[in-house]
Write a structure and sequence with these properties.
Largest sheet: 7 strands, mixed
Strand content: 25-35%
Shape: flat
Number of helices: 11
Distance between the termini: 44 Å
Order of helices and strands: EHHEHHHEEEEEEHHEHEHEHEEEHEEEE
Number of domains: 1
Oligomer: single chain
Structural class: alpha+beta
Radius of gyration: 22 Å
Helix content: 25-40%
Number of strands: 18
């Protein structure tokens, strides 16, 4: 399979990404603001940030969206074979699991922030505890988190499942097989990435609430000073810069306040749609979930999370790739067919100094 691709409304009809950007921004931006490779073509940091903000809006309305790693021609061939019965549900589920596995490394916040520890069959997941910390944060399920006394050098955790699921009606598969298969692949990839990232963000919040950097809850608008204080909390702990996670709605503050613009080194590659990285400040790459549609966002409104680099923050592990299974609900009287993929994972963040959270009310 090929790498993940950015797609946009009207692409099959020969429209460009610039046309999609123009549609979502009511003509404010368009072809002139992107080069031939769909990189932002800006005359200033303020201009680049404004275009990036418009691209977030386009992504939130799915005018611009992330496709799967399977090409259109492959989807058409796969859908035709599935509709004719030449491809089984098992093959569909295996392909869906491959899509999740290939999409996650670029799109997942979890894989951007945490080290991956390889766990062999029959082996425990080992995480070194940081001596200078007061407590470690560990996940015991996809929705349960607990604190661990770091008195011992290693913690052995139990794996828990992360599930990515997608389904379509048999009617859709019969009448519109190409759209049905493409949508199913998109659904399962997005579900897997979102489940991992939602747990990661909840873990970061738990570290911030129980750690050594006091969580800040404040009222009013985002200011350059508040943003600087958030990232500086990591640096003053003697830790290196990792990333600054920023909720998408805070861009309204940044775009509307020119005093922010000189602080940013804007990212102008179209890769920002894949990775969510839109700028850098004080050595911290700024990552947002703003390029996702609303149902796939994982951050709270007006939330900032500054974190240290991978080797100081934490790790995740898994027992191999996503395990796919297909199902047919016609046996219970429902006109549904679906796939789901399961990944057995571990996650631990042993450094209580490595996260700072700021929330605006």
């Amino acid at each position: 399979m090929t790498q993940n691709i950015v797609q946009w409304a009207g692409q099959q009809a020969g429209k460009t990404m610039g046309d999609a950007l123009s549609l979502s921004s009511n003509g404010k931006f368009g072809r002139a603001d992107l080069d031939a490779n769909n990189n932002i073509s800006a005359y200033s940091t303020s201009h680049a940030l404004a275009i990036a903000s418009a691209m977030q809006q386009a992504a939130s309305t799915k005018t611009i969206y992330l496709g799967t790693s399977i090409t259109r021609a492959q989807i058409e061939a796969f859908a035709g074979a599935l509709n004719s019965g030449a491809v089984t549900g098992e093959k569909l589920s295996i392909s869906a699991a491959e899509v999740v596995a290939e999409s996650a490394p670029r799109q997942s916040i979890m894989e951007r922030l945490l080290n991956e520890a390889t766990v062999g069959n029959g082996e425990p997941f080992r995480v070194a505890m940081t001596k200078q910390t007061v407590r470690a944060t560990v996940a015991i399920s996809a929705s349960e988190i607990r604190y661990q006394d770091p008195a011992t050098p290693l913690e052995y955790l139990k794996p828990f499942p992360i599930v990515a699921k997608a389904e379509k009606s048999n009617q859709d598969i019969v009448t519109s097989p190409i759209d049905a298969v493409e949508d199913m692949f998109n659904q399962v990839a997005q579900a897997g990435i979102t489940a991992q990232d939602r747990l990661t963000i909840n873990m970061l919040r738990a570290v911030a609430r129980g750690g050594e950097n006091i969580e800040t809850i404040t009222y009013g608008s985002l200011s350059p000073r508040l943003l600087a204080e958030t990232v500086n909390a990591i640096l003053t702990q003697g830790l290196p810069a990792g990333a600054l996670l920023l909720s998408s709605n805070l861009w309204a503050h940044i775009i509307g306040e020119s005093s922010f613009h000189s602080m940013f080194d804007a990212v102008t590659q179209h890769e920002l749609l894949l990775t969510g990285q839109i700028a850098t400040i004080f050595g911290f790459p700024i990552i947002t979930d703003g390029f996702r549609p609303p149902e796939l966002k994982v951050m709270d409104a007006s939330e900032m999370l500054a974190v240290s680099s991978k080797e100081y923050l934490g790790a995740f592990g898994s027992h191999g790739p996503w395990k796919p299974v297909d199902y047919d609900k016609s046996v219970i009287g429902e006109d549904k067919r679906g796939v789901y993929a399961t990944r057995y994972m571990y996650m631990a963040m042993p450094n209580s100094r490595a996260v700072k959270r700021t929330l605006l009310r």
